[in-house]
Amino acid sequence: MQQQIELMEIGSIAIFAAYNIVLYSQVKRNHYLYLGLMSFFIFLRATLVDDGSMIFYSFFSEVSLTMGRKIEFFSSYAGAPLSILFAYSLYPYQALRKYVKAFLILSGIFLVIVLVTPYSFFYHTLDYYNIVILISYVLMFTILIRAIRQHKVGSMYVFTGTALCFLFVMAELLKISGVVFINAGPNLVNTGFVIFLFFQSIALSEIFASSFKENKELNKNLEKRVEEKTREISRSSLLRDTLIRIVSHDIRGPLSNLKSVISLVREEQVGIDQAKEFMSTIDKGVDHTIQMLDELMEWGHAASQDKRIDQEELVLKDIMIPTMEHMQRHIDGKELSFELSGDIDAKCLFDKNALKVVMRNLFSNAVKFTEKGGFINVNVEVGNEIVIDIKDTGIGIPDDMKANLFEMKKDNKRVGTDNEKSSGVGLFICKDLITQNGGTLSVKDNPDGKGTVFTFTLKKSN
User: CA–CA distance from 442 to each of 146, 339, 434 (Å)?
Assistant: First the structure.
């Protein structure tokens, strides 16, 4: 029965040695290598001790007893430095670095003595090496107690396994030295080391699980960063394509018309009165182009910066009233009634330049697509957030345009009720800027009759 228990212990140690060495070959973590080598040498010692089964000689009968002793002592002496390397690689402690180095040198001297001297000499070093083993446990406990205090993953399990193994090793040393009589069979060190390995397996599993979780979080963060970078690249590409499209169509057109009129006037092919009519049309086109450039520059700035939005506390009327006054000429030209209502003194959190672009674009659209003598109302309601409705009695929006109204599509371009031009990008820019500031933008038919209601939300300033 005793031999069967011993063989089970030896087999368990051998399996653990193989497992950790293979694991090291895959993940390249030193603590797996040190634990694997430690297990291997304990396994080797267990097959060679006098009061054990000595199964080593059953497989290697040609090995002499003297050589077997050398291998046994070397295996026993290798355990202490490997245990220190294992603990220190798991929980580095810079203050102990020089002591760890000194201990490894001391252990190395004993290992060299075993290798180069005959059995009659190195046998007498055993009592001295027992002191080295005690020193190794002092270092181990110092490293592990510090790791526990710092709440290092798995440190409590490593400490528990080490403490239990220490008790069995001490019992074995006392038994060998004859200080006390312990009738516990030949497996005290093996039993202690199996217990040690059991707790190390729990500790390493916890460390592995923690590393897996960290890697998962790292991958998640990496995916988020890739997604953000992809979105930035996409926005930059969209900005480039938009600028190319607008420069080639909406800006080139008014400039070409202006050049044509200048050429006609210079060549005296048109009169002053006719040139003035042309200039009036060109003037509207230039106004539209300047406004569009302002909006594109603001959106381009927002689309190309790492920190896109600089939110600040804004009073709505400070943005609304100047915007309305800027458009007064167009409002008067169409004889429109334009009303601001609700809590226009409300304070919001928004990027100032972005809010100007949004207000100018939505007000301009309401004016552009409202017929002569129509009515526009801008109403502000304050609750958990600020809700602004821009309601007009204009020509409305066809149902087939509503689905893609806030996307950058050529189909979104259409002329106003007084042949005002549209770039087709204004609502896209508004949607993007409002979204970046944490709001929403939507559209619906005017419930009071014909026309449209644009609704957007803003963060309320506390």
Answer: 59, 21, 11
Report if residue 42 sits inside a domain: yes
DSSP reduced 3-state for 271: coil
Q: Of 164, 199, 224, which marks where a domain is finished?
A: 224
In the beta sheet, which residues pair with residue 378?
Answer: 340, 390
For residue 409, the model assigns a pLDDT of 61
Query: Do 322 and 189 belong to one domain?
Result: no
Domain closes at, from 224, 250, 275: 224
Q: Which two tokens stand for residue 164?
A: 């239990």
Look at the chain and report how many structural domains it folds into.
Answer: 2
Single-letter amino acid, residue 326: H
Asked if 449 and 433 touch (Cβ cutoff 8 Å), the reply is no
Question: Contact at 8 Å (CB) between 451 and 377?
Answer: no
How do 386-392 and 311-315 pair as beta strands? unpaired
User: How far, CA to CA in Å, does 359 sit from each of 324, 329, 439, 447?
Assistant: 9, 17, 14, 22
Q: Give Cα 344 distance to the centre of its chain.
A: 41
pLDDT of residue 424: 66
Query: Is residue 337 situated within a structural domain?
Result: yes
Look up the domain containing 42 and give its range.
Answer: 2-224
How far is it, in rounded angstroms, from Cα 157 to Cα 133? 21
pLDDT, tens only, 395-432: 888 887 887 788 766 555 677 777 776 666 778 888 88
Mean pLDDT in each 10-residue stretch from start to end of the chain (462 residues)? 68 84 86 89 81 73 87 90 92 91 94 92 88 91 93 90 86 65 59 83 80 74 76 64 60 67 72 70 67 63 58 92 88 91 93 88 89 93 94 87 74 69 74 89 88 93 80
Return the DSSP state at 124.
Answer: G
Which of 250, 254, 349, 354 lies closest to 300, judged by CA?
Answer: 354
Q: What is the pLDDT of residue 242?
A: 62
Answer yes or no: is 451 within a domain. yes
In a domain, 273, yes or no: no
User: What is the number of helices (H) and of strands (E) in the chain?
Assistant: 16, 7
In three-state secondary structure terms, 293 is helix
Same domain, 190 and 313: no
Angle made by CA atoms 232, 234, 237, in degrees to the nearest 5: 110
Give the integer Cα–Cα distance in Å for 68 and 64. Answer: 6
Q: Which residues pair with 423 in a beta bridge?
A: none
pLDDT (0 to 100) of residue 385: 93
Structure tokens at 193: 């080391």
Q: How far is CA 124 from CA 104, 119, 121, 136, 313, in A?
A: 20, 9, 6, 20, 84
